[in-house]
Specification:
- This protein has about 300 residues and is an alpha/beta fold.
- It has one domain (about 30-275): 3-Layer(aba) Sandwich (Rossmann fold), CATH 3.40.50.
- About 25% of the residues lie in helices and about 25% in strands.
- The protein is built from six helices and eleven strands.
- The chain has helices spanning about 1-25, 40-55, 100-115, 135-140, 255, 260-275; strands at about 30-35, 60-65, 90-95, 120, 150-155, 160-165, 170-185, 195-205, 215-225, 230-240, 240-245.
- The strands form two sheets. Strands 2-1-3-4-11-10-9-7-8 form a nine-stranded mixed β-sheet, sandwiched between helices. It has a two-stranded antiparallel sheet with strand order 5-6.
- Strand 9 (about 215-225) and strand 10 form a beta hairpin.
- The structure holds zinc ion.
- Zinc ion binds near residues 39, 123, 124 and 204.
């Protein structure tokens, strides 16, 4: 009996020791997926990785799915693709390319649906996978032809207007430049405390985005001089029990140097992973008149 107790207490010490080591690191585990995009992922992934790491809230792996014959830059660090989703709290997609393996897609939407992982969609990631039904539900809306689903805008009173699939134009960016981001829900953890209007650095202002638009919660819009409409600019999607954060901003590294972009990425990623936001807004956050840049 004494031997058994000795063994038992030794086992407890080992277990407690292991638990302590894990509990010491409260950082959320992010995996950025990239490697194919009609945008310069080699330039934008490092900006997002630095932004997430500098917040102190995350560990960040990158999983790069290269085209056959393509190369990552020298010194590029990547875990295998597809990544093991059980190792992460949230995926940040910087990917717009060939289909992912079917088994991985199944695992992804199942894990998201059951809230085992969160998902963040950045800019052209919403151009990807038009034929993947579950993906369209996850992202809410994205860059599609005019038959790729409904379009959602806000009228001048801030009321949602839904334009049916097939009516009007397909997606584009009929305005590029600096633009004002207008917060439409200042109580949400991601946007709480932001100025109700803030100026974003030069970027493509995506318009006419299309999709099933189910369980979409609009956090911000931007008025496009190209479409003369208030276009969706930051939103969340409820997918089963899962949480998706979606920003169509972030065309290039320059647009990502906007402190407003960086703060929304950091807070949106935290919210997608946990449903709450602890990260404060930086003191250098842009306001209605001035952009704010951090490299
Ligand atoms: Zn773009």
């Amino acid at each position: 009996m004494r031997n058994f107790l000795t063994l038992l207490s030794a086992a407890i010490v080992v277990i407690t020791g292991a638990a302590k080591a894990d509990a010491g690191d409260k950082r959320l585990r992010v995996v950025i997926i990239d490697g194919q995009n009609n945008h310069n992922w080699r330039a934008t992934t490092p900006v997002m990785k630095k932004t997430l790491l500098d917040s102190g809230r995350y560990t960040v792996d990158v999983s790069t799915n290269l085209k056959t014959g393509d190369k990552a830059p020298e010194g590029w660090q990547s875990v295998a693709f597809p990544p093991d989703l059980s190792k992460y709290d949230v995926i940040v997609s910087n990917y717009n390319g060939a289909s992912w393996p079917k088994e991985f897609n199944e695992q992804l939407h199942k894990s998201l649906f059951e809230q085992k992982i969160g998902l963040v969609i950045v800019h052209a990631a919403n151009n990807a996978f038009g034929g993947w039904k579950e993906y369209n539900l996850m992202i809410g809306m994205g860059w599609r032809g005019n038959k790729g689903g409904d379009r959602l805008i806000l009228d001048d009173k801030g009321q949602p207007v839904r334009i049916p699939s097939g009516q009007g134009e397909g997606s584009g960016h009929r305005y590029t430049g600096k633009f004002s981001v207008i917060i439409r829900d200042d109580k949400h953890p991601i946007t709480k405390g932001m100025p109700l209007e803030w100026l974003h650095n030069n970027d493509e202002l995506y318009d006419n985005m299309r999709g099933p638009i189910e369980n979409v919660h609009m956090l911000a819009t931007a008025y496009s001089k190209g479409t003369k409409a208030h276009e969706p600019m930051i939103w969340t999607v409820g997918y089963g029990k899962g949480r998706v954060f979606h920003t169509p901003m972030g065309h290039d590294a320059n647009s990502m140097y906007c402190v407003g972009f960086q703060a929304t990425l950091n807070r949106g990623t935290e919210w997608a992973a946990t449903g709450a936001v602890t990260l404060p807004l930086p003191a250098t956050f842009p306001n209605a008149d001035k952009i704010s840049i951090a490299k």
